[in-house]
Amino acid sequence: MIKIICVCGTRPNFMKIAPIMRVFEATGNFETLLVHTGQHYDENMSRLFFDDLGIPRPDINLEVGSASHAAQTGEIMKRFEPVVLDFKPDYVLVVGDVNSTIACGLVAVKLGVKLIHVEAGLRSFDWTMPEEINRILTDRISDLLFVTEQSGVDNLAKEGVDSDKVHLVGNVMIDTLMANRERAKKSDILSRLELKEKGYAAITLHRPSNVDDLDKFAEIITAFEEIQKEIKLVFPMHPRTRNNISGSELEKRIEAMSNFILLEPVGYLDFLCLMSNAALVMTDSGGIQEETTILGVPCMTLRENTERPVTITEGTNHLAHITTKDILKNYREIRDSGQDNAGGIPKFWDGKAAERIARTIARGVG
Ligand code: UD1
Ligand code: UDP
Predict the structure, then answer these.
(1) Does residue 291's CB lie within 6 angstroms of at least one atom of ligand 2?
(2) Which of 99, 113, 256, 321 has the fewest beta carbons under 10 Å from its own?
(3) Nearest bound ligand to the CA of residue 289
(4) C-alpha closest to that of 64 among 50, 81, 78, 82
């Protein structure tokens, strides 16, 4: 048996860990310990996804909660170290690019435990993004690097990472999408919100670069004020964003829009149903750029860059600068092109990435 600790901590981690846990369980070759760091903890940012995706309850929840980068990262490390010492795993597996990823990765390698990084190699080349720092450092200390797209393989080669450690396996987030697409059709979110297929745009925003500086965020909201004159907007708002605007002028402007539905974050199946039926998705999320590519739904990413270039070259993604003018320009281009963006499907985004990961680990590679 291969002893392995699987780590998750934030909303996008749950979609990534779900198929990995399922495949590890199915092969019978793995003895797993699922550790939740508690970085995300609200019911609708955490537990809901375990229910929606049938992820086993975490064996351990470190309950670290919210804090500054240093305090959060340090606290996760402190609480994770005794878990590793006690379980004595062959591997620690981390996913994505959040603080939980680098914190648990560092603990593993310092204890001499081999580290596996799922979603390695992605680069925005923007060091102001906390995620870019987490990605680069995690990749540097990993023994096995599982990559979602060719750009990641190329980035790692340029950084001098030994190619024997690097495996292009596809995208576990797409495994989850494919496994749940049919189930999501049964969601009643459209009727609950009185939405028509292709009659609305779905929005998510939570990047510090967009929502921590309210002047910057106002550029985006001004664009939304215009767009909602033409099409209904639906915005399940991330708690970071909600907290930032609480009591502000911007919050009043959002509440004043008549064709705008503001929601708490919704569960995975509801959100997948919302995305699938949207005319357009506007987001700064990493995962949503990938999901819309597979769904063939146009995506406007409100960012200056993306670490997922295949979603532009093969998928449905468009980057917009964070100005009212550029957001409106992109909106009109997408609207007028009438595109349903039946883009290409990136290599190995076929629902079998977790199987490739399990097979590679079981072969004893790394
Ligand atoms: C984190 C990740 C980001 C990822 C995002 C996914 C880091 C550095 N950032 O950003 O890469 O895209 O998760 O959603 O790891 N909060 C709550 N309830 C919760 C969780 C958070 O109210 O359950 C609020 C708190 O005020 C907290 C803030 O959101 O301070 C930010 O949470 P945090 O986990 O630090 O970063 P995210 O913005 O969620
Ligand atoms: N998502 C969700 N409910 C929401 C918003 C997003 O289930 O209200 C899902 C989305 O489909 C994707 C994941 O959350 O699977 C993306 O997480 P997030 O945008 O928080 O993180 P990122 O991908 O940017 O790191």
Answers:
(1) yes
(2) 256
(3) 2
(4) 78
141-166 pLDDT tens trace? 999 999 999 999 999 999 999 999 99
How far does the centroid of ligand 2 lie from the alpha carbon of residue 87, in Å?
A: 31
Q: How far is the CA of 285 from the centre of ligand 2 (A)?
A: 7
Average of pLDDT values for 310-331? 97
CA of 165 to the centre of ligand 2 (A): 29
Put simply, whether the predicted model's pTM sits higher than 0.70 gets the answer yes
The radius of gyration of the chain from alpha carbons, rounded to an integer in Å, stands at 20
Say how far apart CA 168 and CA 25 lie, in whole Å.
22
Q: How open is the CA angle 170-173-178, to the nearest 5 degrees? A: 90
Atom index in ligand 1 nearest the CA of residue 97 equals 11
Dist. CA 255–CA 261, nearest whole Å: 9
Alpha-carbon span 227 to 300, nearest angstrom: 13
- pLDDT at residue 75 in the model: 98
**Ligand 1 closest atom vs CA 42:** 23
Q: 361: which residues sit within 8 A by CB, 6+ positions away?
A: 2, 4, 30, 91, 116, 144
Q: Is the CB of 236 under 6 A from ligand 2?
A: yes
Rounded CA gap, 29 and 280, in Å? 42
Distance in Å, CA 23 to ligand 1 centroid: 28
Atom of ligand 2 nearest to the CA of 268: 7
**Nearest atom (ligand 2) to Cα of 285:** 24
Nearest protein CA to atom 38 of ligand 1, as residue? 240
286 lines ligand 2 (CB under 6 A): yes
